[in-house]
Amino acid sequence: MTGDGGKFRLQLLGPFGLFDPAGMRIEIRGRKEMALVALLAASPDGVCARGWLQGLLWGRSDDEHAQASLRRVLSDLRKVAQAGGSPLIDSENGRAWINFAHLDVDIREPAGRTSGRLFLEGLDVRGADAFEDWLREQRGVSEEPTAPVTRGAGFSSAALWAPPARRRPSIAVLRFGLVSTDQDEADLADGLAEDLIGGLSKSRLLVVCSRHSSLSIDAARPAGEICTQLDVDYTLQGSVRRAGDMVRVSVALVNGRQDRTIWSAKYDRHISDLLVIQDQITGSILATLEPALLGHEESRSLAARPRELSHWDLLMLGRWHFWRATFPDWEKARKFYARALELAPQDAPTRSHLSLCMLGEIWGGAAADPEAQAAAAYQTALDAVSIDGSDAYGHYVLGTIATILGRFDQAAAEQHRAREINPYLAAATGELGRLALFDGRLDEAFTLSDQAIAASPNDPHLFVWFRTKALASFIAGRYEEAIPHAAAACARSPHQFFLHYLLAACHAAVGDRPRALRALQEGQRLLPGYSEQMIGRAMPFTDATHLERYLEALWKAGWGREIGMILPMAPAAATSRVAHVRA
């Protein structure tokens, strides 16, 4: 249907109806098609993120199916009406929109707000729980199930688009299921659930349901029902099964609102000391679960519309950009953290994340005045710990910044304090490994890095720990061993320019100049001006000869002092420059 003059008209008060400029009804048969049109039209500017629409209308489906369904619905709607030579409804670059220039919508008119008609009367979209929640809110229905429906609740274009602000995610640990009546299995199941509740409660980024509430509920019920009853976003479900001298613990993290499994794992152990097994598995789950949950939360915040961003969304967007580790991303991360602090000035985790972002800019050479920024980052981290001294991650960040200031005793003390508060914080273990590296305790650096990697194999800090292993091997003269660790660090975070320089140094140390040059060129592409001063700031070895040997390898790879130019591969030139560094 093409509009040659006048405007289309959309009726959302009362039964859904879309009419062309001549007043003829345009047939839209699918309920989700109607719902999608209503969502776009209720938005202040007519634009919605595709991911947000998927969550509301296909929240129970996996991502692939939800994306395909949304594509189909949008394709069908594009064909419904043409306005001014363009579709009335269209999408591009992760957004979908409706063209208000060619459309009148009753809810946007003053008369419509007081008409007394029910918003989207008769529209019931089964299986789209999130949309139904949104619809009830727009209709003005109280959350109490016994409350009467209020018709004609004053609609306004500003208030109509008002999803609840996202908050810190909440989680309930349910009682672990048992296959048999074996008492040892029952003790292990109960012990795991209780330890997981205690461990998760140490995180300042999660809200944990109380032991009494979560362990008393029937874990066999659907996750959505449990989340509704306990008012949480996620459930952690598990089971314990014994076979001979082996025991298997299975766990799954479920987003109950969307009925989706976010993460799952299995742990097989020989039965010897059940308490030891309980501690091992608890530690493995806790170190892995939070990064998986926060990664999912970051993805959800990326799909949010800019006007809807809550403090939590801003914090998650800051995290996402920070770990991408490019200069533009660091700049965006700082802006998101600053906006988050405007909404919650006394939020300690936000201050800790901001200070870590400032430190990243120093490491990457993006800080105009590194010394002044290091002092500001330190003060920000100190403020965070002052606000909440029991936040383990805050102590981890403060200790990491103390390292760049040369305060190694304080740095170690802060990491030990972080582990006292939260023994499952792998980041603190990994940072102790980095401190051991700079102090020349290479075996200890290797051991602590391995512990951190084993505890949290999908952690965003993972590249740091592989980097520590690579440098420990390099300083020990085990160059062949250093190469795969450096390559593993690059694979975990390919945006980090200094990891490619590290890989170049490792290849150069074994005489593999072609591979060294390729790695160096990638590092140069990401950051051309990597200077000796920047390297020294990021690698504060107590023994200066360790840094000197690393610089020698970079010279052999073709790196140019200070200006970061790739130089000719003449051995004599490389040798003279090494002598200059030693002088």
Structure description:
By secondary structure, this protein is an alpha/beta fold. It is built from 25 helices and 15 strands. The chain has helices spanning 31-42, 50-57, 63-78, 110-113, 129-139, 157-160, 183-200, 211-215, 223-230, 274-302, 311-324, 327-343, 348-363, 370-387, 392-404, 408-421, 426-438, 442-455, 462-475, 479-492, 497-509, 513-526, 532-538, 544-557, 571-582, and strands spanning 2-3, 8-11, 17-19, 47-49, 82-83, 86-87, 89-92, 95-98, 103-105, 170-173, 177-178, 207-208, 234-243, 246-255, 260-270. It is globular. The chain starts with a strand and ends with a helix.
Q: What is the radius of gyration computed over CA atoms, rounded to a whole number of angstroms?
A: 28 Å
Low-pLDDT stretches: 141-164, 561-583
Shape: globular
Termini, distance in Å? Answer: 80 Å
Specify the helix fraction band: 55-70%
- Structure annotation, total helices: 25
Q: Name the beta content range.
A: 5-15%
Helix and strand composition category: alpha/beta
Sheet of most strands: 6 strands, mixed
Round the mean pLDDT to the nearest integer and report it.
85
* Total DSSP E strands: 15
